[in-house]
Every structure is written in C-alpha cells, then in structure tokens.
Amino acid sequence: MRASLHRILALIGKEFLAVLRDPRSRFIIFLPPILQCLIFGYAASLDLNTVAYAVLDQDHSAASIALLARLDGSGVFQRQASLSHAEDIATWIDSGRALLVIQIDQGFERNLLASAATPLEVIADGRNSNTAGTALGYLNTVVENFNADWQSHHGPSAPSVQIVTRSWYNPNLDSRWSMIPSLIGTLTLMGTLMLTALSVAREREQGTFDQLLVTPFRPSEIMAGKAIPNVVIGVSQATIILLIAQFWFRIPFVGSFVVLYAGLTLFLMAAVGLGLFVSSIAKTMQQAMLYAFLLVMPFALLSGLTTPFSSMPDALQTIMIINPLRYALDLTKRVYLEGEGFANLLSDFFPLLVIGLVTLSGAAWLFRRRLT
C-alpha cells in the first residue's frame, strides 16, 4: 500500500511538472478563466421566449380574471399553477418552476372602481436576472394594455394598476449576479476537460507513454496520477473565478464554502472522468482537443447557462440528465446566492456522484484495455 502511494505521488509530481512546463497547458489553466470571466461578466446577454409564472389571486373578480386572461393569451406567459396560500410562493420560486409569482390582493377590483391605489405585487426569481428583467418588461406591457382598456371603459381619470416588484436573491436584477457564479462551473469544465483529455494524448505523441508502460505503475495508479492533478487544477481555476466574483464584481457570497467546494469536487470528478475517457480513445492531441470540444459545447449550451433549463424541449431535458454542468450550475448559484446547505442540494450532489463514478469507472476500464 505504501509503495503504491509513493508511486502515485511520484506520478502526480511528474504530471504537475509536465503541465506547468508546457506553455499551452499554462495558457489553458490561467488565461482563459480570467479573460472569459471578464468578457461574460461585461458583455453577455440573455433572451427570453416564454415566462413560467404562478398566480395567487385572492380577489377572483372580473378585473383580476381579465388581467390574467391577457397574460395567458399573450403567447409568452405560461401559467404553471394557481396558488391558494401565500406560503406556496416560496416553494415555486425556490424550485425554479416559476420565474414570476403574481399576487392579486383582495379588493383589487373594488380599488379600481373606487379610484384608489391598486398595486399588483410581483415576486421575481433574481437568480435569473436577465430573464427576470425581461419578463418584468413583458408584464409591464401587458399591464399597460390592461390599464388602457380599463380607462377606455371607465374614463381617462380612472386609476391604473401599478406593479410592485420584489426580486429574490438579486434585489437589483444585476445580470452579473447570475452569470458570474455560473461561470465557476462552466469555465472550470472547459479547462479541466481539455487538460485531462490532452494528458495521455500528449504522452503518446511525445513517446513517453511507452516508457510509462514499462514502469512498475499499475493502470489504476497511472489513472490516479493523471486524475488528481487535474482535479487540483480545476479547484484552483474555480477559486480564481470565485475570487473575481467576490472582490472584482462585488457579488456577495451568502453560502458555505464547504458545501460549494464539496459540490465542485464531485463535479470535477465527473469532468476528469470524461477527460480521461476522451484521452483513452484519442491517439493524438488534435483528436483529444476535437473530442473534448464536441463534449464541451453541447454541455455548455444545454446546461441552463444561456437559457432556462426548464424552457428546453422535454427530449433534451431527458438527454441532459448525463450533463454534469447542469447540476453544477444549479448548485453553485443556489449556494452562492441563496445560501443553501447539503440537505437541499441532494438533487445536485447525487447525480454528480453517479456521473463521476460512471465516467471514472468507464475511463479506468478503457485505460486497462489500452494498456493490455
């Protein structure tokens, strides 16, 4: 056991030296996370096609029904639920099933008819700041049309409905608050998967892989020596982005670093497993980079980074249960912005654990086959 540990440590040291001495590897480790984080933080924008919302109508009047009919007939707003109690609002927002919750208080129609102030309370999910801001803009247009129609029937002096907005987890709907925490997982996946995929392919091209085969290292020890340095590098990249988020963009971290890094470790296990899987198949560095790119792009685009995951077709949602970035994005944002703990994140931790075990086991099996 001790001899095996010494061999793994020696291989880990060799791997670190190989990565840090290679200019291309140093470039992948440090420069892309910093540049992409700054670029995405300043320049990224999101579009919105549908708005999932829930409604708490405590008035049930003709006016409230007419307003909701305008929302449902807009082609953009999709009602997910009609709530009965105010306590249900938090459940729908926290679970992400509703981007907005509209609360219509008792006396809504009576206040309109009495020319009194008529607020319409809207609770928005600030974790998706761009989409929430766009949805509120759509809602404001629908309410303005409702006001115009109401005044045409009751006189130009009739009062109008006024939207009162509360944004949870991101009070100012700053897009960076949702984008930058998401980049912790996205940029880390790109760097870690690429480095891991290149590790064995680089050795094959340089001719050092055959020398490794004649050493006393077992296949499992070689794989561990390749995997552990890339996990450490991935954690370092995630830490760089986390520091930029907190000290450059001033996004407050309200969760637990222990929970965040536990989730990132499971995520990196899955990413390294995918990278080793690719590395075991590829014969050259060009092939490894191509295969890694083919994995990274769909994983990033279909993870919920640019569009809400719930708005994707059901078939894609089913296929993307194998996407570790999907769970990493949800985990990082919920820990960073909401302060969620282990108990409420089991739906992310468990899939990441399963994906990590499957990918690492598959990579180990392929690795043994290539060595025998």
Quick tags:
372 residues; 9% strand; alpha/beta; five-stranded mixed β-sheet; 14 helices
What is the strand and helix layout of this fold?
Layout: H1 2-21, H2 23-43, E1 51-57, H3 62-72, E2 77-82, H4 88-94, E3 100-104, H5 108-113, E4 118-125, H6 129-154, E5 161-168, H7 175-206, H8 208-213, H9 219-248, H10 257-281, H11 285-301, H12 314-319, H13 324-338, H14 346-371
Parallel strand pairs: 1-2, 1-3, 4-5
Antiparallel strand pairs: 3-4
Structure, described:
The model has no long low-confidence stretch (mean pLDDT 80). The chain has a five-stranded mixed beta sheet with strand order 2-1-3-4-5, sandwiched between helices. It has helices at residues 2-21, 23-43, 62-72, 88-94, 108-113, 129-154, 175-206, 208-213, 219-248, 257-281, 285-301, 314-319, 324-338, 346-371, and strands at residues 51-57, 77-82, 100-104, 118-125, 161-168. It is of the alpha/beta class and 372 residues long. Helix 10 (257-281) packs antiparallel against helix 13 (324-338). The chain is elongated, with a radius of gyration of 26 Å.
